[in-house]
Amino acid sequence: MLVIAxxxxxxxxxxxxxxxxxxxxxxxxARRSIGGLSPxxxxxxxxxxxxxxxxxxxxxxxxxxxxxxEGLTVTILLDRSQSIPLQLKRRAHEFLTSAAExxxxxxxxxxxxxxxxxxxxxxxxxxxxxxxxxxxxxEGDTSATNLxxxxxxxxxxxPNDTANRFxxxxxxxxxxxxxxxxAELARANNIPIDVLPLxxxxxxxxxxxxxxxxxxxxxxxxxxxxxVLRTQTAATGTVRLAMNGQPLxxxxxxxxxxxxxxxEPGPPNVLPVSVSLDxxxxxxxxxxxxxxxPAMDAxxxxxxxxxxxxxxxxxxxxxxxxxxEQSQYLVGALREAGMTVDLRLPDAMIGxxxxxxxxxxxxxVNIPRWAFDEDQDRMVHAYVHDLGxxxxxxxxxxxxxxxxxxxxxxxxxxxxxxxxxxxxxxPAGALALMMHSSEMPxxxxxxxxxxxxxxxxxxxxxxxxxxxxxxxxxxxxxxxMQRLRDKAAALEATRKMVNGDMPDFGSAMELAFxxxxxxxxxxxxxxxxxxxxxxxxxxxLLKKYKDANxxxxxxxxxxxxxVLDRNKMKAVADRTGGTFYNxxxxxxxxxxxxxxxxxxxxxxxxxxxxxxxxxVMRLPGPIQGFDSVPAIDGYxxxxxxxxxxxxxxVIPTTDxxxxxxxxxxxxxxxxxxxxxxxxxxxxTRWASWARFRAFWEQAIRxxxxxxxxxxxxxxTHLEGDAAIVEVEALGPDASFLNFLRTNAxxxxxxxxxxxxxxxxxxxxxxRGQFRTGDAGAxxxxxxxxxxxxxxxxxxxxxxxxxxxxxxxxxxxxxxAALLHEVASLTGGRxxxxxxxxxxxxxxxxxxxxxxxxxxxxxxxxxxAAxxxxxxVATRRxxxxxxxxxxxxxxxxxxRGEVSADAVAAxxxxxxxxxxxxxxxxxxxxxxxxxxxxxxxxxxxxxxxEVPIERRQKPAKARRADPDAAPEPExxxxxxxxxxxxxxxxxxxxRAEPENEAHD
Length: 999
Prior knowledge:
The chain is α/β, with parallel strands linked by helices. The chain has seven domains: 2-68 and 854-881, no CATH class; 72-199 and 814-849, Rossmann fold, CATH 3.40.50; 206-312, Immunoglobulins (Immunoglobulin-like), CATH 2.60.40; 316-404 and 603-706, Rossmann fold; 423-600, Rossmann fold; 712-805, Immunoglobulin-like, CATH 2.60.40.1930; 900-998. It is built from 23 helices and 44 strands. A hairpin with a 3-residue loop joins strand 24 and strand 25 (474-483). Helix 2 runs antiparallel to helix 19 (857-876) and helix 5 runs parallel beside helix 18.
């Protein structure tokens, strides 16, 4: 690479500059081949040829023009996590505001601001007018600190045309990733990181470390739970303990149920408590410490602890229904069979995956998708796939595809496809979404979220369209009304929505109406999401919707929330037969849109006739031994799923055999789908069937998770941020099980999973660990196998590790040392907020001035091509300067602008031509007269016609006649005069011989 000193240009391939030596032979060749070229043209041609060679040589050398940047961009990263005292965060904000607006800041300097907590948010993009905002948005989770994400976000938004400096204000206590790894990226980009340590220390603090309880126990066993607390100074207070939400009496005969404690600094304080576990299931222990004096404890978020113990039983079953008693026949039959059945409403799922893991199978009886939120939907899937639980979905008018389960996580675990078969010709529904979510917090995000939820809940045969508002184009189709098919195009359109601030509902409703009317749908429905401040639609438009039987549901979110806005949106829903929702928690929005989308999916319900199912498979499985089943009065249409799913009972139709009962193994668990119901709606004959109890007992026991082994023991505990899992494996004869084959998985609180490696550490002992972060329960599922052939021992076992509060609240002191290391690594400074006058954030010392390289070879190549044409033209085309001047004069001249000299010359020429014409005319008359007279005399004398020879005889030479007319000039008048003179000469030639004869 060649860089020319003091010039902003460099060459990537400088060896090509050798081509410039061709200028010498080009000069020699030009001298020999001048030929007939004029000296000027020869010099011009040689100059063009030389410039052409130089341009080609420089273009081949890869020239790069380097533009040096101007200005400095300071990106401020402010830690706003909850672990930092509020007063300290305010002081840091005042300091950074003053430093960002200092006199040292030049006009071209820019400022950007990024706030850091569990995630990093851009509060101000790099701009010459930007300042540190007075208040920071507290969206997201502030109970964690991810400094590394903040630095990566700063690197992503930094301008390339200015110098850059990062300023990190934090306590240095990070809870996720590694800030040093991100600082390495900044150093690689030559960006220094100045740090402002926010130093603090809590002298008095009590931390509830954990509850140590067995991960698994047997029914009826008494276990010991150990409460572990740590304090910096001596403190007194009370401890309370609850088991599954019920308080336990810890103080014996004393008043109340709290235990008074005195805590000593130094080693952890351990308080043992004995607990009897009388029933099978999951036991959750919750403990809390309350100080007698608030001054003894600065942070109350770290005064709680949680532990979970699984108690093995003989099989327990969770049945969820909506309270309409549609499961009464099924629950009664299973209880008669001796099974442990827990009947709950869907809101019991709020207990999370730990609650669900206490059961060996879950039965959903006509439960719609909108009864679960997104986390609970993923939770049920993880329960089956990763924890080995059983799932049974029983039909009804709100189940399967009719209940919005299409494209859900639960749908993945079912042995049937919820979208209707392609071969079915059935009436479809049409849904129009009018999106006006711009003024709600994270409006674009939630707008996309709810649109995707509604589209995914529809079948591939339904129609859908999305109306948005764009300031440039007004109301328009983000996705025109059309059949969904594979939904890929519709989902892509939701990610590109504008979500502008819609000024009125009328325009969007007119557009949606035309789209809904234009498709052949059996049901038509529309949903409007808005803050309500758009102008109300006209009564005429609402009547048009009602007359067309198109309902409108309105969802009010965010915005101003005035009574007028609420009444406006409620009136739209009431007038058209829809539903009005006033939503304050945006997390409920997807469930609402899923529910409303089902208004157009009624066609999936097949009823109005008696359907006789057929048993087509009798292989070993959940219905082995059943050759026939009763008829039903209805079912929800589904399709066979490709793969290993088995469909032993079908409903024969003219189009296909529709599934009624299907089953398969999914992940570590199993699932069953029964597309009809077990109530008096469609299943009256089943409820009175003599083998009803036997059928369902056999099916449920097939799908249930196997009982946990008694010879495998699991213990879990926390060591700092690491969760430790220890397994002790014994054989049937109490011998150690060595070389156990394990496949363990950890399900984190956000329902994501990660593998867990277990290594043997001793005879029959295995150990593994994983890093914790967020607060919540970490479920561990261990699948194991030992032996081979007929002697193989295998099974699954579960355990849990709980983190009661975020790691953010476990620290009582800053970590300034980490911040100093970041500054040292990147060449930054350690700032002191005590003296802002000494801090200059816009100091350019030791900062690298950025250069913006721009390749210019393509421009040079274009210039060379243009010069090549000019070079050829110069050598091959002769150009007259006089002619060029004349053409130029004609091109720039204008008619009607004639000089006085030109007018005078024109007049003189006209007068001369007139005189010449007059003289010529007179001579012609004289000639005709003489010729006529002479010819007549000659004819009389001779008595005969003049011979042709004599007529053509040339006349003799005559003296010049001074009175003769002057010779005419060239032109038309001259030709006329010449003809007259020729006639005169002919006449004289005829007359002269006669005169000679007479002489």
